[in-house]
Write a structure and sequence with these properties.
Elements: E1 3-7, H1 12-23, E2 27-32, H2 34-40, H3 43-52, E3 53-57, H4 63-77, E4 81-84, H5 90-100, H6 116-126, E5 133-136, H7 139-148, E6 155-159, E7 169-171, H8 174-184, E8 189-190, E9 195-196, E10 201-205, E11 210-219, E12 222-225, E13 229-233, E14 241-246, H9 252-268, E15 274-282, E16 288-294, H10 302-310, H11 314-322, E17 336-342, E18 348-354, E19 362-367, E20 374-375, E21 386-392, H12 395-408, E22 410-413
Parallel strand pairs: 1-2, 1-4, 2-3
Antiparallel strand pairs: 5-10, 6-7, 6-10, 8-9, 11-12, 11-13, 11-15, 13-14, 14-17, 15-16, 17-21, 18-20, 18-22, 19-21
The structure holds adenosine-5'-triphosphate and magnesium ion.
């Protein structure tokens, strides 16, 4: 039975990878921190691990110590593959795979898939179309670099190494830049593992156009793009995702343009084995700009959407590539699926969520915060209180049904 080391199962991709491994007859060792396991793992996830995985604790805040411990564990257990289900651990998993001689990404470039400052440099060096970017440690330095680079407002301010749209702001003036800079720099450790983060703040040209996501599957350096899908993000100063629809309704030329851009980005950042998630914008003139790339599965239950809409199981593919097996990328369905997040009108205590109708397109709805729980004001992905997954024959039908669901739902906060 092949053995897989899975770094951090928290977050929704962990469950999909555990299920895929079970279906493939693969033994899994889940690695996390003891406190994270106690405080953050849902009862369902704990039950899954209890039924068909082993559990090992480590301290990811000490990446060198974790690397040594996990290398020894992998050798003792004769592990056949390593995966990460949490983006912050993708550089560690690349080093681990390289040291163990297992399929993985170019470990010398793995940080460029995680750190937006280093990513921007790698894109520039490879001529990949991406927003003009500078990175500064102080706001005074930022003003100077913005001017020297000829960047004009609006610009986007974001931390080098966060995720979930946390600390991402679109700003229109020096004053707004100073405030956004302070927010972006206010959290220099990644919860809940306490991983130290780069203190540089990234300032980017604001790129218009329409945003899409796309995954690229890479098997021993051969990159195959999947179908692009919609990434719906709020407008205004704060950018938070409010949903995704698989696939995007696009003409064939646009699909090809996005796929070629994503494959070029994958090559530029040294993704040689696995799945890479890219977010990119398509401009009115038909050109693209890559916003970011993560050497990881997509979050936000997109794994379930892709499976439902196209019959492609990205978690299974990820496990197979990590084990050196050949995945199947052939779609077995030609339908559409979407997710929409339920968000409160403001921060406070969640009182109720009502009005999720029985529309035929809704296949699953979940509250992720119990009534009585604290909720954050809308602004980043942490303000979600639940989600609805929809499935229909076409993306247009999914989008119409999703708009109706969001119009009918009331999230009450006191
Ligand atoms: N340079 C830019 N120009 C235009 N919009 C941008 C730019 N950078 C970021 N955005 C918008 O803000 C969103 C969040 O930014 P980004 O993806 O860099 O942060 P993140 O923390 O990785 O977020 P997430 O995990 O939600 O994707 C993007 O999906 C995009 O809609
Ligand atoms: Mg992003």
């Amino acid at each position: 039975m092949p053995k897989l080391l899975l770094l951090e199962a928290m977050g929704n991709t962990g469950e999909y990878v555990l299920d895929a491994a079970r279906d493939l007859g693969v033994e899994v060792i889940v690695v996390t921190h003891e406190d994270v396991y106690e405080d953050w793992y849902s009862p369902e996830l704990k039950a899954k691990i209890g039924h068909y995985a082993k559990l090992v604790f480590t301290d990811f805040s000490d990446s060198e110590g974790a690397l040594r411990q996990l290398e020894e564990l992998a050798r003792t257990e004769e592990v056949d593959g390593v995966v990460a289900c949490w983006e912050f651990l993708t550089p560690l998993v690349a080093r681990l795979a390289a040291d163990l001689g297992l399929p993985g990404n170019d470990s010398s470039r793995a940080l460029s898939c995680r750190n937006k400052r280093i990513m921007a440099r790698a894109f520039a060096e490879s001529g990949i179309p991406a927003p003009a970017t500078v990175a500064a440690r102080t706001v005074e330095e930022a003003y100077g670099l913005v001017r020297a680079a000829g960047l004009a407002y609006p610009v986007v301010v974001k931390p080098s190494e966060q995720s979930g749209s946390w600390g991402v702001s679109v700003v229109h003036s020096d004053e707004e830049l100073a405030a956004a800079f302070a927010t972006a720099q206010s959290h220099l450790f990644q919860d809940p593992h306490g991983i130290p983060l780069d203190a540089h703040v990234v300032i980017q040209e604001y790129v218009g156009g329409v945003e899409f996501s796309i995954e690229v599957v890479v098997v021993r350096g051969v990159a195959t793009p999947l179908i692009p899908y919609d990434k719906f993000t709020t407008g205004g100063a704060k950018r938070a995702e409010f949903g995704h629809t698989v696939p995007a309704e696009l003409d064939e030329a646009s699909v090809r343009t996005l796929q070629q851009a994503a494959v070029a980005a994958v090559r530029a950042l040294g993704v040689t084995n696995g799945v890479a998630h890219t977010e990119l914008k398509l401009l009115a003139d038909g050109t693209t700009r890559i916003i970011e790339l993560g050497a990881r599965l997509p979050g936000d239950h997109v794994v379930a959407l892709m499976r439902q809409a196209r019959g492609i199981d990205e978690a299974r593919i990820y496990v197979q590539i990590a084990l050196g097996l050949e995945p199947s990328l052939t779609p077995t369905a030609d339908t559409a699926a979407g997710i929409r997040f339920l968000t409160p009108p403001r921060g406070g205590t969640l009182r109720s969520v009502s009005g999720i109708g029985e529309s035929g397109a809704v296949v699953r709805s979940r509250l992720t915060v119990e009534p009585g729980g604290q909720v954050r004001a809308p602004g980043d992905n942490d303000s979600r209180v639940g989600y609805v997954i929809l499935h229909a024959d076409t993306a247009a039908e999914v989008n119409v049904a999703a708009a109706q669901v969001l119009a009918d739902v009331t999230v009450e906060v006191v």
